[in-house]
């Protein structure tokens, strides 16, 4: 049976509004099963009951991540009734944590020196170097804050998200902007080579632009497929000539536009190195778990195994 990808019941209506081209007809059972399988494997390999602070991302896939954490903790409760605190990346994420009976802690309540033991999240597309596009559900800013604060970031997705380069199947880069600046940011994005950036609106157009948890807007900016660091090392030009960019250069260019709060490109170092790098790109995952149609899970790790 071929149906539209469902809005998960835990996602408040109007929150997870995907860019138009992402709404593809697909088999619900297969995709949801693939995501769930990937989530359980990711949690099995990266979560344990002696952790103290755990980041929880947003979207439909992370719901299975929380289900897997809950299942693990039911079998293996933390010793001495100790709490594990789960740091959400937005409203939906907090609801998912609460509904699982886990203990949320606001990002800005974290003790100053604390690093999260791990942060789990989904992605819209992941390339060969584990750079990610995120923000399909309009949650990229808090996701980047939380990922940047984690000792390791682990991504959970399905096979559709696994591409050699970003912008292969996913149509656009989500960019969170201050409402007053949206028109000027769109003009600047066109100058960078984005052919038709659009202000994301609710499906019901009369309700206006989608607003993020910060009350900001999202612009979805299409670009040509983005070059990886390997492409650049091999001599390909990612400086924007003919609208061809590499991930790092484009992310920095967009972030520098006045009015941009955050760009939905996660790149840069992994783990604790991120702090030294100032957290510019968020961080990319140390591993991404892609659930497949046949029930298998492909794991890509960074740095790549030899
Ligand atoms: O803004 C939303 C987040 O970046 C999500 O993690 C991303 O869109 C993936 O969502 P889903 O798991 O629903 O595909």
Automatic annotation (TrEMBL):
<dbReference type="GO" id="GO:0004751">
    <property type="term" value="F:ribose-5-phosphate isomerase activity"/>
</dbReference>
<dbReference type="GO" id="GO:0009052">
    <property type="term" value="P:pentose-phosphate shunt, non-oxidative branch"/>
</dbReference>
<dbReference type="Pfam" id="PF06026">
    <property type="entry name" value="Rib_5-P_isom_A"/>
</dbReference>
<keyword id="KW-0413">Isomerase</keyword>
<comment type="similarity">
    <text>Belongs to the ribose 5-phosphate isomerase family.</text>
</comment>
<dbReference type="InterPro" id="IPR004788">
    <property type="entry name" value="Ribose5P_isomerase_type_A"/>
</dbReference>
<comment type="pathway">
    <text>Carbohydrate degradation; pentose phosphate pathway; D-ribose 5-phosphate from D-ribulose 5-phosphate (non-oxidative stage): step 1/1.</text>
</comment>
<dbReference type="GO" id="GO:0006014">
    <property type="term" value="P:D-ribose metabolic process"/>
</dbReference>
<dbReference type="InterPro" id="IPR037171">
    <property type="entry name" value="NagB/RpiA_transferase-like"/>
</dbReference>
<dbReference type="GO" id="GO:0005737">
    <property type="term" value="C:cytoplasm"/>
</dbReference>
<protein>
    <recommendedName>
        <fullName>Ribose-5-phosphate isomerase</fullName>
        <ecNumber>5.3.1.6</ecNumber>
    </recommendedName>
</protein>
């Amino acid at each position: 049976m071929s149906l539209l990808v469902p809005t998960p019941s835990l996602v408040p209506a109007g929150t997870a509004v995907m860019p138009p081209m992402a709404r593809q007809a697909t088999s619900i059972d297969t995709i949801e099963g693939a995501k769930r399988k990937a989530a359980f494997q990711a949690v099995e390999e990266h979560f344990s009951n002696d952790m103290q602070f755990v980041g929880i991302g947003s979207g439909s896939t992370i719901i299975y991540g929380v289900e897997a954490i809950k299942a693990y903790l039911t079998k293996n409760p933390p010793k001495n009734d100790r709490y594990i605190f789960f740091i959400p990346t937005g409203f939906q994420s907090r609801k998912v944590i609460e509904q699982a009976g886990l203990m949320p802690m606001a990002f800005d309540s974290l003790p100053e020196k604390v690093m999260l033991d791990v942060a789990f999240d989904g992605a819209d597309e992941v390339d060969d170097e584990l750079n990610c596009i995120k923000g399909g559900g309009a949650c990229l800013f808090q996701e980047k804050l939380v990922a940047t604060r984690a000792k390791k970031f682990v991504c959970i997705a399905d096979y559709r998200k696994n591409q050699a380069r970003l912008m292969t199947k996913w149509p656009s880069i989500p960019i969170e902007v201050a409402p007053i600046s949206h028109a000027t940011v769109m003009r600047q994005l066109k100058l960078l080579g984005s052919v038709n950036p659009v202000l994301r609106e609710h499906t019901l157009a009369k309700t206006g632009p989608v607003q993020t948890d910060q009350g900001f807007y999202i612009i979805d900016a299409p670009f040509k497929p983005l070059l990886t660091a390997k492409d650049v090392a091999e001599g390909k030009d990612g400086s924007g000539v003919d609208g061809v960019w590499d991930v790092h250069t484009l992310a920095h260019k967009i972030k520098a536009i006045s009015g941009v709060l955050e760009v939905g490109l996660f790149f840069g170092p992994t783990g604790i190195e991120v702090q030294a790098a100032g957290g510019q790109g968020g961080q990319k995952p140390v591993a991404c778990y892609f659930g497949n149609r046949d029930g298998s899970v492909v794991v890509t790790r960074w740095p790549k195994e030899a």
